[in-house]
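Sample entry (455 residues):
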Amino acid sequence: MTTEMNVQEQEKVMGQQFHKENVNPKNQGWEMSKNARLGWKLLIIGLLSVILLIPQQLIMHLVNERYETSRAAESEVEQMWSGEQRVIGPVVHIPSRDNQTPDVYLLPEDFKVKGDLKSENRHRGSFDVTVYTADLDIDGSFLIPSLSDYSEAKYRLDKAEVLISLSDFRGLTENIVFHLNGKDYTMSSDKDGQMGSVLRCSVPIAVLMGDSAVDYSVRMPLKGSESIMFLPIGNSTSVQLTSNCVTPSFQGNFLPVERTVSDSGFTATWKVLALNRDFAQSVTSWSKYVSESAHSVNYDDNEFGVIMRVPVMQYQQTTRTVKYAYLFIFLTFATVFFVEHRRQTPIHPVQYLLIGVALLVFYTLLLSFSEHIPFLWSYMISMLMTITLITGYLAGILKIRKTALMVGALLFALYLFIYVLLQLETYALLFGSIGIFVILAVLMYVSLKVKWYKE
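Predicted structure, serialized as tokens:
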């Protein structure tokens, strides 16, 4: 009996060994084959994500191209209307007698401007360009107590004249008359070696000299595009502008001391003293370039004014949105992969590619809509179209509507997160870092539920 039991035990052990040798290798091979397929699938998805970054860069190039087209449209309108305006003057110009001595430009004691700007939008294709008409009242006084530093041997005092410089003379709509000490002087257009295009009128030097200030005034109806700038040429400068423009951008080296912006327009007042600028009351050269001389005026470092350009923030916002494309692609592919693995429903790489293309089409929709309607509505419409397309496509693949809607909800949350991020400025980096951290934490948690290796 004992012998029979030993025989049975031996047969049992031999059977277990046979099972291990003949059955387990097959199962192990099958598991290894499944894990290999999983690895290859992840590799293909990663490659697709990288490949889709190429059309992302093409879309970025398209956004830049559309922006340049809008600027070209603005230039065309400026050519037909008038360009940006910079007003400099009036100043007293005393020419020299020889080329070795520079001409001298004497600046006014007071320089005051009151202007009413009426802006309007002109259309060029699908783009809007802001133009304006300005009615400028310029007044102040000259105080030239002595010309002892400017001898007749070096300077032609008999050729003294008053100059006013403008960027674009096409903007003048009336003849300009300069009022000085109760007399009228008709101004004509000309070129000056230092100031460029100027209005000029000859004045007797004796009129400007004396112990008391000599008053002047000039009315200047003017057309321009996008911006108007001034230089603080007075020992005391005051500029007050009012306009119906509701999107002003105050620019330059000096900001308004008072400003009010409302739905009906803006009012702004600048006050600048000679102490605030970097040039003296007598000037020998005017330039756009930096100069260390106190008698040389650098336009860019001293001008101030307002830009009334139609905001083209949609291109900037679209560019920022496109920069997050890699995040959309990665998170969407990761979500679809986890759904595929959990539901045991295979999704072909071509289908992943189509989903990625749908994500990129969102940006072309956003760009095209934002050129015609506000950015918020463009973003929402493009977002809903993209989410509907991807959700419907996944519902057809997975045959489970609830799961597809869940993926759509995740996409909706991601799009809203990016939109909020676009609107933030000061806290954009902080909010974005926290958001990405939360997204990463969610993905890590979901990955814990995936059995990467079958036991």
